[in-house]
Here is the input.
Amino acid sequence: MTTILSAHAISPERPTVRHVHYAASGNWITDALDDLRRAPLASLFYGVLMAVMGYLLVELVSGHFHHGVMVATGFLMFGSLLAMGLYDISRQIERGEAVDLVGSMVCWRGNFAAIITFGLIVGVALFAVAGLNNLLYAWTVGADPANLPDTAAQILAWPAGQKYVLMLLPLMLLALAGMFVVSLITVPVMLDRRLDPLSAMALSVRAVRTNPLACALWALFIVVFCIFGFATFCIGLALTMPLLGYASWHAYRDLIGDAREHATLDVHAG
Here is the structure.
């Protein structure tokens, strides 16, 4: 007698986390370059838009170090939401569809409530970090920071400013690391599979926990690309942001699979 048992009887639509090679981010960037080649005009549109936005943000906080820190932090924390249109373009290319720039700009309509909710979660997190930053600045530098020197050079040359920076760095790193973990594939999975934000965030945490080295290397790529973009007076963002957006989509497709991939058949002869 032969009995065939399907593992767990899970719906094949249920997303699961894959193990990937620690250097998988190299493949994600290679695939992103291919998307860039296939959709040059749409990529240029989003790239220029993000470069202009980055430049305006930099100008807004120019000469105010502690505000600039929060702008940079907010840019990174909201990065996955800003790249939604790029995710959709990668999805269109993957499906063999013609690139629809206008459609990519309204891709959020398919799971509007979930995406808005996630945006609010990110906003609350950023607001909390900004509050801690202001408290820390007032405690270390002065009670009225608006009347104190606040350029990066002045802060770093000042003992109180050095204390502020040394205490600020762990806070910012913790905030960014936490946001990276809960948002690595959250927005792509909400767009593609229409999950609620909490389920998508939990899936993102599992993806990072399952592939810590690969995800750490990807986080390093993101930081380096963003630093390059801002260091070139935001001109570089026109290239790095589309690349990061497309690569993030391919990271999602590589890290997340379906339960059918894990279904096994146990055959018992009797």
